[in-house]
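I have been asked to look over a protein record a colleague put together. What it holds is a sequence and that sequence's fold in token form. Please read both lines and tell me whether the tokens look consistent with the sequence. I do not need a full report, just your reasoning and any doubts. This is what I was given:
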Amino acid sequence: CDDPTVVLALDKDECQARLLMRAATLAERSGRLVEALRLTQAASELARRSASPYAEVPVAYLAVLCGEYARQHHDTPMLETAHSLAHKLRGTLLHDGDLAQLRLQLALLTRPQAAAELARLTLEVWWHPELMLSDGTWHWARGGFVVKSLEALILNGYLEQARELADYFARHPQTFTAYEALRWEWAAIRTRLYGSLAERRAFRRQACCRGYVRQAVVAL
């Protein structure tokens, strides 16, 4: 897989780790969660060997994927693993907003009040983008941060909070046009929150045909 962020790599191990992480994100987007976990674990081992600050990123993504696996399979031990990984993060590369978002995403599985907290955090980061890492290593743009919060709210059943947040960001549509994946993510969110059942089913077919299986799930 090609990844433009490899130019940021400090050595060969980090370069390979970034390429594996790119492959992992594509696997998750295509609905291949177990493959994404395996690739991210391999990336984590390489990044740790390089001793670069980037080593924090695969650990954070492992926490995200473990949380997603726990949500899908009601797997308590996997959720505990996700929390354990998240607590290891110290912000050596990721910013405060990134870490807070990850921990609140995991908290949604067990703590309903986390939904309102995540919505507030998303607005705060929107107005203070220095709270997020935006060089492509974690997110490319503020819109990427926003859609991850919205996806988490939708997939965990917090549709009221998701709709309130989406209503706000509907005033800033240009935020979600920076790159193709972001456009699909935003379209999936809007289809889920505002589309008819027929529109959601049609979007699911289109998204699956383009390899955006995760967005098909979000929309339906």
Observations:
- The radius of gyration is 17 Å.
